[in-house]
Amino acid sequence: MRRLLSFWLLWAGLSVVAYGQGVTTAALTGTVTDERGDPLPGANVVAIHEPTGSTYGTITQADGRYALLNLRPGGPYTVTVSFVGYQTRRETDLMLPLGQARVLDFALAEATVQLEALEVVGVRSSVLNSDRTGASTNIDAQTIERLPTITRSLADFTRLTPQASGGFSLAGRNNRYNNIQIDGATLNDVFGLSGTGMPGGQADAQPISLDAIQEFNIDIAPFDVRYNGFTGGAINAITKSGSNRLSGSVRYLGRNQNFVGDLKTPAGETVPFGDFSEYTLVGNIGGPIQPNRAFFFVNAEYQRRKTPLDVGIVGSRAATIFNVTADSLNRIINLARTRYGYDPGSYDPLSNGTDNLKLLAKIDWNLAAGHRLTLRHNYVNANKDEGINRGAFSFDLSNRRWIFESVQHSSVLELKSTFGTNLFNEARLVYTRIRDKRTVQAEPFPQVSILVNGRYTVNLGIDRFSQANALDQDLWELTNNLTYFRGKHTFTLGTSNQIYRFSNLFIQDYYGAYEFNSIADFEAGRPSRYYFSYSLLNNPQPRAEFTAYQLGFYVQDQYQATPYLSVTLGLRVDVPLYPDKPLDNPAVPEAFPGYRTSTTASGNLLWSPRLGFNWDLSKGNRTTQLRGGTGIFSGRTPFVWISNQYSNTGVDFGRVDARNLPAGCFVPTPDPSAQPRPGTALGTTCGLAPITTTEVNLIEADFKFPQVWRTDLALDQRLPYGLIGTVEFLYSKTLNDVVFENLNIVRTGTAQGGRVLYGQPSFNGRTERKDPRFTNAILLKNTDKGYSTSLTLGVQRETQSEGLGGALFYTWNRAENVNNATSSRAISNWQFNEARDVNNPELATADFEVRHRILAHLSYRVRYQRRFATTVMLVYEGRSGSPFTWIYNGNANADTRRDNDPIYVPANANEIVFTADSPGGWNELNAFIESEPSLRKYRGQIVPRNSARTPWRNLLDLNVVQEIQTLRNQRLEITATLLNVLNLLNSDWGKVRYASFETVPLLDFQGYDAQGRAIVRFRPISDRDDLLVTDNLASRWQLQLGVRYVF
């Protein structure tokens, strides 16, 4: 660590970087000439940030050029230009967006007598500007206040990016492939356990209060090499700061079940939302510590929510029905209590609660002329009730509950300095500390999963993935940029480095996990499958502990080729390093030559050359702009995929994965030492092999983090009535992405449609393994297969503080990959990847693709009678449904999993066999195939992954803010936010339907007959939508009321 720090300090002292905007700053550049266009060297340029009195000054160079860097984003600024013998020019009310360099040229008139200074008001387009190259969206302070949002999540704002795919997915990529920064500090979920891509996401918490954010950018193709760590998009936000005026606000937001609409079921019933409550309290205050010199800002937010699990059993009026009777559930509960001595809880309606507290404190200090220090700390404490998952096909009893707890600390120390007229420095030190854990609420017990009626699963006991689960993360970031400005060129040389330290406790099946094919089997204690993990070390709960470095260095030249054409050429290299090696298992190279558990993918260089340009075709009028670029973007994998190698070496844990155990092999105790394991008398009785079996996770030595080659080309045109039209093409080609392979399964043949078999297919299947000492050997490696492309057409009218603003965009998108990699575990990423050959998956539609998307938003603000103002904003999103795959319920390829095999669509009745007890036969199945295009077009084939789609979605949201001026500079705001306006107008509109885990089981697979035909059970389907899950909350209108006092 000491050597690394010394190296960084040496590099920081030698760095010479180009002018331009920074990750947390803005910039102002341009030329000063006389009226003939001749440069005026030595002219004084002074910019004053009016809220704080901060002053930034420089003089022009020999060619009349100037640059003011490291400016506070926002404003307003007043810029004054003066030169002896010339009239002074002044521009007022100038706003500088985050991450952009405003070009502001001045032509001074000669003055033989004293003249009044000439003042102009600065108006600048965030679209038509010379600093814009690739796809980018700026979310300013007024948009943050106006946009309809209830969750107060950054994801609600990323939807304003035309290339967004929903949530945090950008450009058709996995949301874990984004990079989120707050004040330059990485604040995405680098370990990768959160489905939202943000820390605290498992507790439904946001990493920062929305009221603490000043503005942020969503960049998909920033060709500045300082932006890195993503192949999806970069979300870069800055927090608010204090000013010379003491100011603040207090906000209350609330809603309950009376503010949520009823849901109309397919049967025509009206289902009210269950008891529900949510409230949020937010407070901000900021002001001067010492006027014009030091300032503070403090934010606090507390949120509490209670949400019902609105899934019911047969006979209930819940929005989603689990098709099992109360008699069957009562039988399971009574067996658990009387036969096995465990109280599994009930199937009564339940609610989940969440609580989170956020605190932020920030100090800005103008140390001396040209030097500004910022210290910011952000704290989040969140918890959420978890462990109860109920849906149409799976139902958890109440004693499975556990609480997810997350505590986060993030500190930033940043120093921005100016030396002379053309030398600028930006240094940043970040420390982030995150502690997550799962706290079990019920009595410990093995997980038990019971199949009812061959299709529905009832779960009791402690979730197999939560029996021993905790994570500690520590992240240090060291960044330094020294900027040198000279003439038409800017030269960039910089460094950005991260140091990660992880301690991960994850022992799946620590108490054991059992599956039963029926209630009768549960009663007999006869498991169809048994999982168990146990420590082979002295420590009964060993952790995966390791350190990772990622060092980055970059060089760049930004060249103003002509007054109308700027070109940016840069090169970046990043290198991940892993100083800690996993334990070595000597049995692995014996079984799988060429691989070792101690192998790490350390030191593999990631090169990222980039070229960007901006060309003002109107030659100074900035009415027609051609922009774009091409280059490589390097991200990082979630480190949990790396952690898998440290926690699954085969010398730390023994793993049991056994099938069809005899009666009496269910051990109803949480004591790990009492569970059946190899080499024990009970293990022998239960038919376990006498040798220790284990799972190993491996990585190829030349594995690289994800990389894409991305190209962007766009044309922006100013139109009448203040409109701007845009045409933008974006293409990303995968250079390196992830794919998983199981080295321990043996190919045994093929079946219908060329499906590759790995054993004896049946409902559960029996896998043929290469080496009996191992259950699975999952290899993480790279693939270069995959791409995403989009074409966007749009028109927008930029929003001003008053009046009308809005946008209308249409985006066509296509995205394909070989593995969506949505899980944290290597085995799950391999298993849950529907393919003809699970070890050689084909290119197919990505989960994150939205084929067609229409985005429209409109805002209007009017002020009247001096004291009143009303703001209205509408946001509409119409989009293609999400892709999903038709699968078998059963193990059609014997690959260890029974719910990951895409179905073979029979061409005719001779290609399929129905069981004697099948409710439906060929006529019913054939009719459904004919009615479903995603099946009909694949007759005689295996359906490709994600070849079907859920219905088109139409969502319309509204936000209204009523302002009432009270005392001087103070006001009261009353807000009403209405989500899913269409559902309020018509209960059949605004429905959101999805497929659980992007799959829909259509046929129950039982095996193949002697002719190789699939033997199945089929349940007739009256309505395709019955197979999908209706989102219980998003399919209803929701209202939230709020009040805010600003002083």
From TrEMBL:
Signal peptide limits: 1-20
Keyword Transport: yes
Membrane topology annotation: Multi-pass membrane protein
Subcellular location: Cell outer membrane
Primary localisation category: membrane
GO CC term (a single one): cell outer membrane
GO biological process, one term: siderophore transmembrane transport
Keywords: Cell outer membrane, Membrane, Receptor, Signal, Transmembrane, Transmembrane beta strand, Transport
Family annotation (Pfam families): CarboxypepD_reg, OMP_b-brl_4
GO molecular-function terms, A-Z: siderophore uptake transmembrane transporter activity
TonB-dependent transporter Oar-like beta-barrel domain span: 238-308, 352-986
Alphabetical list of PANTHER family matching this protein: OAR PROTEIN, TONB-DEPENDENT OUTER MEMBRANE RECEPTOR
Protein name: TonB-dependent receptor
Upper lineage: Bacteria, Pseudomonadati, Rhodothermota, Rhodothermia, Rhodothermales
